[in-house]
Amino acid sequence: MTTQNFWSQKQLEPKRKFRWLLYFAGAPQFIAKSVTKPSFTVGTTSHNFLQHQFNYPGRVTWNDVSVTLVDPVHPDATASLYEILKDSGYILPPDIVSQGDAGLATISKEKMVTSLGNRVRIDQISASGAGEVIESWVLNNPLITNVNFDGLDYGTDEMLNITVGIKYDWASLNDGQGVQIQTGAGVRWTAAEEPGLLES
Length: 200
Prior knowledge:
The protein has helices spanning about 75-85, 95-100, 110-115; strands at about 20-25, 30-35, 40-50, 50-60, 65-70, 120-125, 130-140, 145-150, 160-165, 170-175. It is mainly beta. The radius of gyration is 22 Å and the shape is extended.
């Protein structure tokens, strides 16, 4: 058998960690800092017979994805995520009375998924750019499970990061190419005072 000298073949290119684009609730690409790829866990159940144990596969569970965003002044990522929470149905206690019957609403899956645009997509691209997608994951029915707005510290000049946890029903591999990712309900990643700076 002939062994191929793959290291001498210039056309071979591995997938690289820094070549990717995130489509998340209409956020501009440049604020995305890192993202974990989808992963799954297969549950198992066992059956015991005499001194033996036999294992069988069970349900497939898709594990949460974590997104880290840089929080610029414009666009204001903190304000945009807060608006997504409100569009999902969250109502502050003082608004319960002022909004009447509408103030008695609660968060729903439909509102949360719609506010995020129904899908989140992670595209890995080649050295040629976004026109050549080599791997594409689509998170279906995404829900935000947690948001961490980082902390403040006089002892550092680092950028503020926002960490977002996302749960989803299932992930599709390479089925999302060409899928239109909606930006969700309401205003996203914008501020009225300087709209020219905020377009993604």
